[in-house]
Amino acid sequence: MAMQLNQVVPFGRSFDEYVKMFSLSEADLQKSILSVADGPASFNAEGTARGYPIQSVDPLYAFNVEEIRSRFYAVLDNIIQQIIDTEEDWVWSYHASVADLKAHRIAVIERFCADYPTGKQQKRYAIGQLPHLAYGSGSYDLGLCSHFLFLYSLQRDTAFHIAAITEMLRVCREVRIFPLLTLNLETSLHLPPVIEQLQNTGYSCSIETVEYELQPGGNQMLKIHKSHLEMAERRLG
Ligand SMILES: C[S@@+](CC[C@H](N)C(=O)[O-])C[C@H]1O[C@@H](n2cnc3c(N)ncnc32)[C@H](O)[C@@H]1O
Fold first, then answer.
1. Which backbone phi and psi does 55 adopt, to 5 degrees?
2. Which of 43, 61, 112, 134 is 20 to 30 A from 12 via CA?
3. Tens-digit pLDDT profile for residues 40-62
4. Does residue 201 sit in helix, strand or coil?
5. What are phi and psi for residue 7, nearest 5 degrees?
């Protein structure tokens, strides 16, 4: 189903936030990265400028730069007011205050918008949506998914999560997902069955604490890759 822009909250995070959310090392950043549900984050724009190979996928990229920017400014004040109303429910360590968060989100959307037309021409921003990805098996070293899977657990069931993550693992040798909390600040109920299913099909899953927390308790990332046993069996044929 085509995406309706008026249902999207186009808030994006910066390169530095991605580095912290996913504990990305310099070696990780040198890998080929597929950032799924990348939306209006400035990860690709800033990462490309630094010479890192990043591909972004999101249904949002069906829209042009002005449509995405106008949607951002149309919802900005309402969302910031909701955060002001619930200020104690957030962790003010990375962002010092609501005003700082707002300024950061504006800087991110403007950085994204400045890069988006060129990035689209260069095919760094591709239209696509989980649970299907238009890439061959093993095309990327590292797949990232920030603020989509698990966060929208009420809107997407366990089967969707399993299908989406399995598809990311078909395309990427390793997958990292952040955060593991829902919008209601609870650990997603999909997390245990997703991990069980992935482990049953030969993947290693680990939950790692990271240096980024805006939702209280939302400082954990799920890391998934083929288990060593499975890789050894494959090598042996
Ligand atoms: C809250 S934004 C997160 C953007 C970015 N990853 C970040 O953290 O700054 C969620 C994104 O998920 C995208 N999205 C919605 N449905 C999707 C799907 N089925 N597959 C991939 N992305 C989807 C939306 O278009 C939106 O850009």
1. -115, 130
2. 134
3. 999 999 999 999 999 999 999 99
4. coil
5. -100, 0
pLDDT in tens, 109-126: 999 999 999 999 999 999
| Ligand 1 centroid from CA 12, angstroms | 9
Residue 99 sits in a domain of what CATH number? Answer: 3.40.50.150
Q: Please state, as a whole number, how many other Cβ atoms lie within 10 Å of the Cβ of residue 88.
A: 6
Domain housing 29: 5-236
Closest to 67 measured CA to CA, from 101, 20, 116, 136: 116
Query: pTM for the complete prediction?
Result: 0.94
Mutate to test the pocket of ligand 1, among 17, 36, 55, 58 (most ligand atoms within 8 A of CB): 58
193 in Cβ contact with 158 (< 8 Å): yes
Q: How many other CB atoms sit within 10 Å of the CB of residue 118?
A: 12
